Structures are given as C-alpha cells and as structure tokens.
C-alpha cells in the first residue's frame, strides 16, 4: 500500500558523494549524510510525500560543500559528516531579495 510519493522532485535536490539536501518548502530542508553514499528513499512518518513543486531556491557549490538559500533560510554545509562547525542554518525574514 502506498501512502505518498517519497521520491523528491529532482530539481529540489543537491547532492555530493556522501550528502543529499532536499528542499521541501522554503522553510524545510531534508539533510542527509551517508559515509557510503547510500540514502533512504522510503516514506517516513514525517515526510510521506516529498514530490512537491520546487520551491524558489538557489544552490551554490562551495569547495566540497554547498550553500543553499531560500526566502526563509540559508544553509551552509561543508560536505562532511554533520558537525557544529560544518553545518549552519540561519533563519531569515521572508524576503525575495536573498535569491
């Protein structure tokens, strides 16, 4: 029995060898890290349906990591195992000017 579509809209995803970031809404990003590069695509209780229209966002590759900007947040990620020094999320006031 299927409860939704757990696969995200491809345009909403940026990934590297060991990470995957999926923008679900301007204020909600799914962050995944896997040392072996394998990711879970089954539906979860929290996100049964990930096939949503792509929110307005911008991705920029920075070294081995990425910077992600939406109207609600900025995510700075170094592409390594999640750590306090390598992953920062900054919430911003709703503003189209960040994009």
Task: Please explain how this structure is put together.
With 99 residues, this protein is an all-beta fold. The chain has one domain (10-98). The protein has strands at residues 13-15, 19-25, 28-33, 57-62, 65-70, 73-77, 87-91. Strands 4-5-6-7 form a four-stranded antiparallel beta sheet, with no helix packed on it. Strands 1-2-3 form a three-stranded antiparallel beta sheet, with no helix packed on it. A hairpin with a 2-residue loop joins strand 5 (65-70) and strand 6 (73-77). The radius of gyration is 14 Å and the shape is globular.
- Taking all residues together, what is the mean pLDDT? 82
Our estimate of the beta-strand percent is 35-45%
| Multimeric organization | single chain
Given the C-alpha coordinates, what overall shape results? globular
Q: Classify the secondary structure makeup into a structural class.
A: mainly beta
Percentage of residues assigned to helices: under 10%
Low-confidence stretches: none
- Sheet with the most strands, sense and barrel status: 4 strands, antiparallel
What count of domains describes the coordinates?
1
Element-by-element helix/strand order:
EEEEEEE
Strand order of the largest sheet: 4-5-6-7
Gap between N and C termini: 39 Å
Radius of gyration: 14 Å
Distinct helical segment count: 0
**What is the number of strand segments?**
7
């Amino acid at each position: 029995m299927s409860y939704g579509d757990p696969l995200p809209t491809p345009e909403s995803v940026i990934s590297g060898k060991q990470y995957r970031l999926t923008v679900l809404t301007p204020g909600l990003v799914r962050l995944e890290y896997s040392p072996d590069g394998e990711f879970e695509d089954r539906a979860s209780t929290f996100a049964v349906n990930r096939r949503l229209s792509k929110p307005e966002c911008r991705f920029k590759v920075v070294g081995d990591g990425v910077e992600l900007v939406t109207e609600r947040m900025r995510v700075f990620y170094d592409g390594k195992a999640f750590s306090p020094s390598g992953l920062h999320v900054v919430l911003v006031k709703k503003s189209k000017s960040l994009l």
